[in-house]
Write a structure and sequence with these properties.
homodimer; CBS-domain; about 5% strand; elongated; CBS domain (chains A, B); transmembrane (chains A, B); voltage-gated channel (chains A, B); membrane (chains A, B)
Chain lengths: ~800, ~800
Amino acid sequence: MEDDSSLLAKPEAPGTTVEPEPEAVVDEEERDPESNSLNQPLLKRNRTLSTNPLALVGASVSHIESLDYEINENDLFKHDWRSRSRVQVLQYIFLKWLLAFLVGLLTGLIATLINLAIENIAGYKLLAIVGFIQEERYLSGLVFFTGVNFSLTLSAAVLCVCFAPTAAGPGIPEIKAYLNGVDTPDMFGANTLLVKIFGSIGAVSAGLDLGKEGPLVHISACIASLLAQGGPDNYRLKWRWLRYFNNDRDRRDIITCGSSSGVCAAFRAPVGGVLFALEEVATWWRSSLLWRTFFSTAVVVVVLRAFIEVCNSGKCGLFGTGGLIIFDVSDVKVSYHAMDLIPVIIIGIIGGLLGSLYNHVLHKVLRLYNLINQKGKLHKVLLALGVSLFTSVCQYCLPFLAQCRPCDPSFREPCPTNDRAGNFKQFNCPAGHYNDLATLLLTTNDDAVRNIFSSHTSSEFHHTSILIFFALYCILGLITFGIAVPSGLFLPIILMGSGYGRLLGMLMGSYTNLDQGLYAVLGAASLMSGSMRMTVSLCVIFLELTNNLLLLPITMIVLLIAKTVGDCFNPSIYDIILELKGLPFLDANPEPWMRNLTVGELADAKPPVVTLCGIEKVSRIVDVLKNTTHNAFPVVDEDVLVPGTVATGATELHGLILRAHLVQALKKKWFLTEKRRTLDWEVREKFNWVELSERELKIEQVAVTRQEMEMYVDLHPLTNTTPYTVVESMSVAKAMVLFRQVGLRHMLIVPKYQGAGVPAIVGILTRQDLRAYNILTAFPHLASHKEQGKHN
Amino acid sequence: MEDDSSLLAKPEAPGTTVEPEPEAVVDEEERDPESNSLNQPLLKRNRTLSTNPLALVGASVSHIESLDYEINENDLFKHDWRSRSRVQVLQYIFLKWLLAFLVGLLTGLIATLINLAIENIAGYKLLAIVGFIQEERYLSGLVFFTGVNFSLTLSAAVLCVCFAPTAAGPGIPEIKAYLNGVDTPDMFGANTLLVKIFGSIGAVSAGLDLGKEGPLVHISACIASLLAQGGPDNYRLKWRWLRYFNNDRDRRDIITCGSSSGVCAAFRAPVGGVLFALEEVATWWRSSLLWRTFFSTAVVVVVLRAFIEVCNSGKCGLFGTGGLIIFDVSDVKVSYHAMDLIPVIIIGIIGGLLGSLYNHVLHKVLRLYNLINQKGKLHKVLLALGVSLFTSVCQYCLPFLAQCRPCDPSFREPCPTNDRAGNFKQFNCPAGHYNDLATLLLTTNDDAVRNIFSSHTSSEFHHTSILIFFALYCILGLITFGIAVPSGLFLPIILMGSGYGRLLGMLMGSYTNLDQGLYAVLGAASLMSGSMRMTVSLCVIFLELTNNLLLLPITMIVLLIAKTVGDCFNPSIYDIILELKGLPFLDANPEPWMRNLTVGELADAKPPVVTLCGIEKVSRIVDVLKNTTHNAFPVVDEDVLVPGTVATGATELHGLILRAHLVQALKKKWFLTEKRRTLDWEVREKFNWVELSERELKIEQVAVTRQEMEMYVDLHPLTNTTPYTVVESMSVAKAMVLFRQVGLRHMLIVPKYQGAGVPAIVGILTRQDLRAYNILTAFPHLASHKEQGKHN
């Protein structure tokens, strides 16, 4: 578990943290359950490859599990579902909306709390510094500043390292993986939530170069997950209504609501939040979900608005009038003409280049950090503290290098100020002068962005100051992200981007009549797009952030160009992190070479599938459960009569049974002394659908006596009779489309032949089997086709 | 064809216009191709039902066809795809983006043209009326006004009725159906495009209560479709590059770009356009498509902006400064508090009620109109002219009922005016007075909306005037939509909604401090949402339309409430029209009772499937093609050896062959004198992938000699070897999810049994078989479960 605490758990090749779910076909001579003990090697039939790379790659190195988004249609489910009354259906619908409402409400409140805490802690810290500076006690100021930041970072890092290692980093890649069907352990628990909240407050107040935006998304997803399961793991509410949500499908929907609420709370961008969830985070999307996420974000916005109204009356300490539209440039009269397209295109191109460069270098830095973080908890904390020290010293000392600039009466804001915020900080300058670098560095990150975005201030900053700012935040943006505190990526990239944008605006000089603040906004947008590769959602977020609709067309152009340029070099930063973490994320588009491979060939390269009979002996079930790690087993009936034909001795594919349901059957002693089919009422007396969905039970916790071992279990009523299947001649490309579009965990492969002696089932495919990396390991010759680019 | 010209082609039950694609299972005794002539009845095996309702419902009453969105992976495709060089892949990508660019550019230009034409025609008409009124020649004014409108309507209706009947109505439901996989004939041709452009200009200039927004979406989709296929049907460009687009998948993507460009051009709402396509129109959606539609709308916005810049310098005749943000309320200082939530909620509720009432009544009106329209071309034209006369008379005469109101010096706009636009029309009033009803009625629809949305004008309108306006537009909104001219639904609903909103604002009086213009905006939004049931996209469209971000939270609440209320009563207006038109649209969510039915049972209720052998006799192919209307046939090899087993006499499911490919094989004389498998080079010499995709060829156009009838065809290389399949025990609910998610046209059903004598294939499912209405016809007992609501 310790190893998971850093941002990057596994530095090895991608695909190393694997759910192990392969199978074995029962050979003819093994059909007799008596003779077939799984303690002897099962994997006899292995036609083409002597090793089974698909199953072995990283087998059981981690607890990552796939999620069951498929509806498990077994007899019990069907009965449970049929017996639901109209009232229960309404309860379910009501509860869905109630949860969406609560997610929005709690996200709004927690976002408010975080904002208040950060603004106050950072505010008092900055006011104290102003005091030191005014008394010219520069060294004491440095010690105080560094000390406060050091202890804030220490507390955040210790919280994170000791109590919830998964709270480090932004959390967005893991949410993306969850919605794709990959469950990272301990990702959405109560510990993670609390550590994320307080860790984020600590880390952002400490002036580190990271944002609260990513963590807010994760916080919101945690809230959603906890609400859906009725509380923390150990203290769950046993509310009867909540039983409807005891499945991965509904949790997925609520977490989608959560992630959009988080973005909404971070940027006060309700539409942007919905689109962010749609474009970047979610894998499956339905129209009804669009509507529910929209409702959640509407609630968040109302909560935030109410809070701002309260704060405007001065009850929030140092929070002031900042509000949450952090970079409001609505008063800028934007006027641009055809000629202004040229600088806009240049910004886009450079943003794309810088963004992909940032992705590339950050990848290297994260790999390096991972080596350090792996060494233990102390190393993690020390790394975080080192970064904090460097940041503090730079932020405090660099402003002394800047020349004091005289205040110009044309400035619209007070100049100079000694307030905690303000655009013209006096710092060490004489009266009537201000220090432009202190304005940018000795402030909160939000204020820094607001200052550099400020319009009608073309003479405010000296270009060396902006250059120093840009260079410093490039370094900080690379070294800060990987440390063990909750950290978002949005703000560091915005800071870097605004610096480069404003610099470019200065260089353009008289060529253009766009405002320099506008250049800063566009620079930030271009770098975001160049690194994160989002378009529509970023566009809307920037729209709602800057509150200026007239910027829309040029923002669109900048974003499109930056994304296009960036895509030429490397994938988006989230994809890079997903790959570094070894999360088996399934891409939307199959690789072109996947058309040249059939699922039958894939199944041949895997160990044979393990099947169970419809009425199976207890000893074999125990064997199978103890000696394999598969999560589902095909159920095949033998020697059945096919209705309407003369065929005898046929086999029948009955369906797929989950490991959890087998364990439940053993635990509940669902045993028969003879081979017979059970009746409906027998099953219903023994099981109910809700209990059956419990996943935590392990086979090791179930005791079966010697006598019971000789008895039988009727698996039919527990079997999902409607698994999705493909014929063995199906190409991997199309199978993958099916797998992803329908949200599967297991996909059965049926033979294309029909006749006596043909096995009822050829194999079973899981997420891991469809990952390009794993397939290429088993079929290296396909790699030569890999060169040919995707053309979809 | 004539019957298709009205908005509603078929008034019968839904699902009546059907593609007939069912099949027959080959019985044991029919295996010998010699003895099996399809001239004799094939449908012997019919286990459960004596009739075959699924196949019969409306069979061949229309030419509606399903689209092939699946990739047809046969040998030729694979070869074609493998042989594509890197350069060709780049050509393809470049072309995709070029087409997206061209769609945006042309949509922008045509939208400009339409706007210019309408503003000028309507402007000169209105100026002439002002002249008549000032000379007090009221009757001449009436005659002139009615006459001009009459002739404009006549030209639009004649164009529509005689040249392109499909150009009537908005076209959005058909686009929605197309993207769902249903091809309506003549929907995206050059005729339709031209008639839609000029018909729309005529109808809107005639002052009818309809908008240019819906038609613009259709126009844009036509442009996209024509570009993708290289020109009109008879004069296609034979550009080599375009061959890549000779498939339904790529056309689907381009038409999605087109529909979002259309909305963008209509409302100058680029993000709203993308979201509209996403939420309302598209069935499948990929992240890369999001990006490309966004690019298209960006191009549209740039074109429109350039055009406005030109027009601002006065070169556009009467176009003036209108611009395209038609209802800009950005100067309204919105301030609202918790108490304002109550009127906002009331607006939402009433909007939802009115919207669903509108849907209900419009449904009845459309059914009535359909009876009239069916009687022939003359009736259609007469109906349109009657509506035009009524509209003109009301618009001209009603203002005389209004009392003249004195101009208030506090008004921000000139008062009174005799200009073509303007918020305070003098009309028949003495100097210093204005006629508030003339301001709303005797103007273009766009200007009417702008006037009623206007802010700081709480004393402008008398409440009886608004009441008359509202009542009139309720009537017009119901009677105008179904006539045979291009008409959009957006504007009529906005007009109605703004009237009711403003009325409500007046009633609220001093209870609220929201502006009355704001009430009008919210009323329009609520009615749109109550009728069309969109949320996010409407919200963004209104945001971009009103250019005021502060309205966002209350707009969201209004939209959500209105949609929730409306959904309690009936489906959205587009769904109603889809059903009226009998388009076999496949819904996103399966009905709950579909879980109680397996696809095997469904297949049993259908006529048996018609299969072909891998190497089939020509005579049987000709028979099958002539005597069935199916569009695809499973290909099954018999007596094959299963590798790796001792099984003999097995059958092998080779895949699915399309009718078009069979016809091509016959036409190209792909005949063998003996039963043998052909070699790769033979096929490639005879066929190429592009020709194979031609769909127009009919079996009747192919001549086969008596001698050739005895020869064989090797179907293997032409067969799609990777059709999607389901096992017969799959529930219809899950099968439908698969069908829709992957975008299928045919889905094969394989048996769950495995053994000698079991048929290789149980049946084949098409879109029609999965439609709730058709299933219920065949299985009436399921209808009793229907009551239980969906709970997804």
